[in-house]
Write a structure and sequence with these properties.
Blueprint: H1 2-25, H2 37-44, H3 46-49, H4 73-76, H5 83-91, H6 107-114, H7 119-138
Helix pairs in contact: 2-7, 5-7, 6-7
The chain binds heme C.
């Protein structure tokens, strides 16, 4: 009897803690806000573009196209890192392929859906993309 009462109290406490903890966890921060640009890159990009960005990730060989070397984007653009173009390439939603299929995932779409597709999700997608662009800027050779 005592034991059952104690369990009931614990259950009630857990019930109280539950919603509170949830509200805290889903506050303004998005799921990937704790990730650095490097960590985001490792998670979403390295499989194709390679750990160092050279285009030699484990999946690259099974694609029908060359995976670009991301360490030379600045050089290929006359020395200036093309941040806006890179941002659009990653997001992908405003890029219409001139010829053929896009092989890289449309990250803007993928990430937005994964985060719930609402306005907060869009804001997080923008933060993730910013971090990725800055990370790519930092690995230019
Ligand atoms: C499934 C393999 C794959 C993954 C994963 C991938 N990419 Fe790509 N990426 C490509 C391919 C292939 C291209 C060349 C364009 C195309 O065919 O889609 C490309 C093109 C690009 C370009 C354009 C380069 C240029 O010359 O303008 C950028 C920037 C880029 N990727 C960054 C990223 C970032 C950042 C990530 C992670 C968020 C990522 N990619 C994940 C395969 C991939």
């Amino acid at each position: 009897m005592m034991r059952a009462a104690a369990l009931a109290v614990m259950a009630a406490l857990a019930g109280l803690a539950g919603p509170h903890a949830l509200a805290e966890a889903s506050a303004p921060a998005g799921r990937f806000d704790g990730y650095s640009g490097r960590q985001l890159y490792e998670r979403f990009c390295a499989s194709c573009h390679g750990s160092s960005g050279l285009g030699d990730g484990p999946v690259a060989g099974s694609l029908r196209v060359m995976v670009p070397d991301l360490t030379r984007l600045g050089r290929a653009n006359g020395g200036a890192f093309p941040a806006e173009r890179v941002r659009k390439a990653i997001d992908g939603r405003s890029v219409y392929p001139v010829h053929g299929t896009r092989y890289m995932p449309v990250w803007g779409q993928e990430l937005s859906v994964e985060q719930g597709g609402d306005q907060a999700a869009e804001a997080e997608v923008a933060r993730i993309t910013d971090k990725l662009v800055e990370y790519l800027r930092s690995i230019q050779q």
